[in-house]
């Protein structure tokens, strides 16, 4: 079935989003990515959209629908960080992170759900983070926005579960990306000590879980939080 399915990955031009888009392409899906700048991987349709702008998103969806067909799998991955301790965090530091990470997910999923309801089939996959449930000093804005995705997916499951639509959360831990590569070696070693697996994940290890959730094998899984964190957040 995968060859006929249309996937949209937000923030699919770099990092985890890019790896997810590449994996869907490799598995034969028709893949579109949203990006504010840059291009998605080879074999994808890149559409320009800022997830905080409903009009831009609507135009992006129309472009995907006219080129590839209705979106059947949506991966809400676009996210930003503005890390600082609570007492130094400005209202904009808080509001802008929540507007992108949570508000962006709301806008994208609301728009995608219209086609899914018509088709009576859909996969909603929200990319959260281990810090959403484990917590992280200096990330009150980010961890709050990522924790909120759990309530989002579970409420959506209760609303749309009877229509052949699932909604799940993937919670990555530390991943080998440009961001972690820039950390000093001793900081990386310190982080790895707290991870039972003793290493960071590759972006492709996250992508594999996401594509599995989109498959027919995962049709009866909804409202779940699946950690991809090497055991870092166990029980959280």
Automatic annotation (TrEMBL):
Keywords: Oxidoreductase. It is an enzyme of class 1 (oxidoreductase). SMART domains: PKS_KR. One of its GO terms (molecular function) is 3-oxoacyl-[acyl-carrier-protein] reductase (NADPH) activity. The keyword Oxidoreductase applies. Gene3D superfamilies: NAD(P)-binding Rossmann-like Domain (3.40.50.720). Signal peptide: none annotated. The keyword Transcription does not apply. Residues 5-178 form the Ketoreductase domain. Its EC number is 1.1.1.100. It comes from the Bacteria. Belongs to the short-chain dehydrogenases/reductases (SDR) family. PANTHER family: 3-OXOACYL-(ACYL-CARRIER-PROTEIN) REDUCTASE, 3-OXOACYL-[ACYL-CARRIER-PROTEIN] REDUCTASE FABG. This is 3-oxoacyl-ACP reductase FabG. It comes from Microbacterium rhizosphaerae.
């Amino acid at each position: 079935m995968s060859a006929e399915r249309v996937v949209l990955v937000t923030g699919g031009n770099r990092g985890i989003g890019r790896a997810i888009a590449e994996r869907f392409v490799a598995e034969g899906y028709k893949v579109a990515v949203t990006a504010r700048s840059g291009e998605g991987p080879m074999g994808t349709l890149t559409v320009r959209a800022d997830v905080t702008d409903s009009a831009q998103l609507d135009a992006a969806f129309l472009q995907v629908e006219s080129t590839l067909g209705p979106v059947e799998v949506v991966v809400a991955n676009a996210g930003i960080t503005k890390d600082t301790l609570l007492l130094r965090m400005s209202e904009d530091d808080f509001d802008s992170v929540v507007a992108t990470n949570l508000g962006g997910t709301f806008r994208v999923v609301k728009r995608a759900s219209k086609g899914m309801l018509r088709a009576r089939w859909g996969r909603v996959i929200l990319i959260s983070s281990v810090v959403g449930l484990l917590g992280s000093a200096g990330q009150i804005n980010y961890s709050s926005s990522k924790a909120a995705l759990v309530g989002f997916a579970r409420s959506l499951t209760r609303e749309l579960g009877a229509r052949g639509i699932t909604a799940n959360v993937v919670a990555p831990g530390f991943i080998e990306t440009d961001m972690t590569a820039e950390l000093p070696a001793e900081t990386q070693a310190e982080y790895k000590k707290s991870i039972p697996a003793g290493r960071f994940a590759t972006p492709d290890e996250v992508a594999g879980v996401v594509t599995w959730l989109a498959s027919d094998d995962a049709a009866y899984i909804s409202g779940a939080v699946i950690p991809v964190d090497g055991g870092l957040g166990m029980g959280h």
